[in-house]
Amino acid sequence: MSPTIEIATAVKYWQWRCYAHGRPPRYHEFESDAGVCDLCGKSGRPQVQPIVLIHWQRADEKGPLTGQDGRRYSIGCEPKREYLALSRLPQHHYAATPLLQKVTCPSCRGLPLFQQMWKALRNLVHPGMRIVDGPGCCD
Ligand SMILES: [Zn+2]
Ligand SMILES: [Zn+2]
Question: How many Å apart are CA 45 and CA 6, to the nearest integer?
Fold first, then answer.
């Protein structure tokens, strides 16, 4: 049976933001498995919060994933990935969405096809409009 895509219900915590160093934009961002700040050693909410990584689930006729709509998809930065979340354990969580404006993965957002579609979408919705404040991929 083909894996079924769960859209944005699972998340992977790979980046964290520590608010012990000041208000935005002065907070400190770091990567860690355990979520312990590499500057001050703090962990846990409310000071250390996970940054949710959401990948781009793109329509792809030859993609290894089957969506709930029956269409084929692949993950932008991991086109050979055949599943999303492996289990309900937090370390196995994985999020993906076909909605470009919800994608936060820098690797997915950096893909030429993503950039192309992002520009097209932006012009379609409202010429010149910024849809979201993403990582500033397109200007
Ligand atoms: Zn810190
Ligand atoms: Zn990605």
Answer: 26
Q: How far is Cα 71 from Cα 100, in angstroms, rounded to an integer? A: 17
pTM above 0.70, yes or no: no
DSSP 36: B
Average pLDDT, integer, range 25-47: 88
Give the ligand whose atoms come closest to the C-alpha of residue 16: 1
Cβ distance 13 to 35 under 8 Å? yes
Report residues near ion ligand 1: CB below 5 Å.
18, 20, 37, 39-40
Q: Residue 60, CB half-sphere, CA atoms under 13 Å: how many?
A: 20
| CB-based burial label for 75 (10 Å; 0-12, 13-18, 19+) | buried
> Which among 102, 79, 77, 92 is positioned nearest to 13, based on CA atoms?
92
Looking at the CA of 49, name the nearest ligand: 1
